[in-house]
């Protein structure tokens, strides 16, 4: 019985545990004392604008940037002591693709697999499996230079899986891709979730975080300002619906007093006014009754961007 209890405890221990984690670059504190736990089989996200500290946190977890202060354990090891052992069990998808452009898709996967000491027979079979997963089989012998941005991104993700990692780190995985390529990549990542792969994702796309993450933290200026599942965060910090009223630049500020009292909360942005309410259509009718004439109107459900705006007073794309 004791052995079973110990096994259960190990399964519940986090793959990543950070406590009061800090990263400084000279006098600049990029990560300012964050606490994070990531458990086996979950997709965990760092959501925030550029410069929030997401990538700095990811680089510390990936054992390529030493922490400045605090405690960090990855796969129950210390990155500053056991870096090579941890890296051997990680899959890493960097912000920028770093593929060998003069090699074919197949060769990129096979050569990368050899870095982990895997046999030639194993990497040949693994490359075939991963090309099928990434929907690249028909282009197997094409050089990387001939691929689209979306294909290169899928190849980078496939390459990160060559060593069957315990933890997959994805830093802004869909930045720069068109909507169709982004959705195809989301499908591949969702399949990995279904297979039980643990994902750690940084993103500044709210829809990406909502689609992929079981839990996430919202970061701003190096600090965590909220943590939870996407539905929990929206329920805690926003309303069920949002009415967006669009105006010409500079005109939205004049409307705030007119719509006062029509919603739980009103946010005034340079080009629009947001009314946070449980019933967007009712709020829209009420604004029309008060003579408000926006350029356009939209009733939508609340998103993580609304949560970020509530917590920080600005949007994710600022």
From TrEMBL:
GO terms for molecular function: ATP binding; ATP hydrolysis activity. GO terms for biological process: response to antibiotic. Pfam families: ABC_tran (PF00005). Signal peptide: none annotated. It is a peripheral membrane protein. InterPro entries: AAA+_ATPase, ABC_transporter-like_ATP-bd, ABC_transporter-like_CS, ABC_transporter_ATP-binding, P-loop_NTPase. Keywords: Antibiotic resistance, ATP-binding, Nucleotide-binding, Transport. The keyword Transport applies. Belongs to the ABC transporter superfamily. This is Lipooligosaccharide transport system ATP-binding protein. It comes from Haloechinothrix alba.
């Amino acid at each position: 019985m004791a052995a079973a209890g110990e096994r259960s405890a190990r399964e519940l221990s986090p793959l990543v545990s950070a406590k009061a984690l800090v990263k400084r670059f000279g006098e600049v504190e990029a990560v300012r004392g964050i606490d994070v736990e990531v458990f086996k089989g979950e997709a965990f996200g760092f959501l925030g604008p550029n410069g929030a500290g997401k990538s700095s946190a990811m680089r510390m977890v990936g054992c390529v940037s030493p922490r400045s202060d605090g405690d960090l354990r990855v796969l129950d090891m210390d990155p500053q002591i056991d870096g090579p052992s941890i890296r051997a069990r990680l899959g890493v998808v960097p912000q920028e693709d770093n593929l060998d452009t003069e090699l074919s898709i197949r060769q990129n996967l096979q050569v990368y697999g050899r870095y982990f000491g895997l046999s030639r027979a194993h990497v040949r079979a693994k490359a075939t499996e991963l090309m099928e997963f990434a929907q690249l089989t028909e282009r197997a012998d094409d050089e990387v230079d001939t691929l689209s941005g979306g294909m290169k991104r899928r190849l980078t993700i496939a390459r990160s899986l060559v060593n069957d990692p315990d933890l997959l780190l994805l830093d802004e995985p869909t930045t720069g891709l068109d909507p169709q390529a982004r959705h195809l990549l989301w499908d591949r990542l969702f399949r990995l979730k279904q297979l039980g792969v643990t994902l750690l994702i940084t993103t500044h796309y709210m829809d990406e975080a909502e689609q992929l993450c079981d839990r996430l933290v919202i970061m701003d200026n190096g600090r965590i300002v909220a943590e939870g599942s996407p539905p929990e965060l929206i329920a805690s910090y926003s309303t069920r619906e949002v009415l967006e009223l669009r105006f010409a630049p500079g005109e939205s500020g004049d409307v705030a007093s007119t719509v006062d009292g029509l919603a739980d909360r009103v946010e005034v942005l340079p080009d629009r006014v947001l009314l946070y309410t449980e019933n967007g259509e009712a709020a829209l009718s009420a604004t029309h009754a008060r003579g408000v004439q926006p350029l356009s109107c939209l009733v939508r459900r609340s998103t993580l961007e609304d949560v970020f705006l509530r917590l920080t007073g600005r949007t994710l794309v600022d």
